[in-house]
Amino acid sequence: MANLVAWILFSMDCQHKCPGGDGNCIYTSAICQPTMADVIFLLDSSISQSAGDFRKQLDFINSPGGTFTHIGLEKVKQHVKDISAKRLFENTAKRYVFLLTDGMSSCRQSTLDAAAELRNFVTKILAIGIGSEVSHDELLGVASPGDERAPEYVFSVHNFNALYTIIQQLVALTCDECLWNTSSDVTFLLDMRSGITDLHFSKAVDALTYLLSDTLNKNYNVTVRLALLSFGDESVQIHRHLTDTATTDSLIQYIQTLTVSRSCEGGSAELCGSSNINTLDTALHDIEQGIFSGSKNETRQTIILFTNGDLRIPTGSNSNHSRLKESGKLILVVGLGEEFKVGSVQGLVSDPAYVFVSRSENSFRNLDVIATEILHTSCELTNNF
After folding, report:
1. CATH tag, 183-374
2. How far apart are CA 258 and CA 107, in angstroms?
3. With CB atoms counted within 10 Å of each terminal CB, which end of the chain scores lower, N or C?
4. Interatomic CA distance for residues 17 and 323, integer angstroms
5. Whole-model pTM?
6. Which one has a higher pLDDT value, 190 or 323?
7. CATH topology of domain 6-173
8. VWFA domain: from which residue to which, for each copy (predicted)?
């Protein structure tokens, strides 16, 4: 029996109460009209998942084993084929599949093939990354491609207790009309300590260029402001404020000129950067107290750190990164290089799925998920249902 076969089907049929109870309803225009939906949750209970987290939602956990995601997807396909989506009055329910997994399947190609087949029978497949080392590449291959509602249908949840965010996304998906009513302030933070190799820094520049030119350059009705900081061995430098009006193209041209200054003469990258000054903590302080100080209350504030790891992450509830997370600011990490270890930065992020690893040459597609975190949508519901 495959581990990834725990699924539930339920319907969301919206019923409007009619004044007077005569059954003759007159629908008036509204910002967002609800629609019918069938929802399937496909849960990963493999050995790579935390049994403690899983028990928070379910009373059982299957025996440890491989993650046979393809079998779970195939069973969901058969299920939706066997049950009609037709409803009363010639209505048809939309169908959504929510896959919760770390994306580390035992048979990756079979998983991608099964997902492609399932997409022919459902409205959307949404993939939610959970676990200590999420494979964003596989999640992107499983989920439905992005559209005018979302850049990608790959998401993160802080833990299983945050599953209510999935329902919020469902509401956004099942709205006939959604308003883009959000704005984002994004601060890119470059690790420019002398301990980072030229190769790793070059990859950081390439990854940042990819985000600016391909991922964030989308025609969504949101306001995105960009800032750029770097931290070296002894100081923090602000390269761009949120209020700067220079174009994205000029920012890309600027970052192409950046180079790492070595603080020790004649030393290798491994031997440099031994300063006791914690410039990362200083940079986070400057972002919190300076860069984000002018943000509006409803603006999503995001920090994207590019590093090869080996960071001195301060501990304690009064540390800058702890205050940033507690205040609702989102910290994402782009790890660079073959030797990068996800565990080296997990103390910075609130969810392991917020760590994106770029190991292979020119492999940045997994960074597309970052756009989903930044370019978020909202539905304003005017109907009570």
Report:
1. 3.40.50.410
2. 41
3. N
4. 45
5. 0.77
6. 190
7. Rossmann fold (3.40.50)
8. 27-170, 185-374
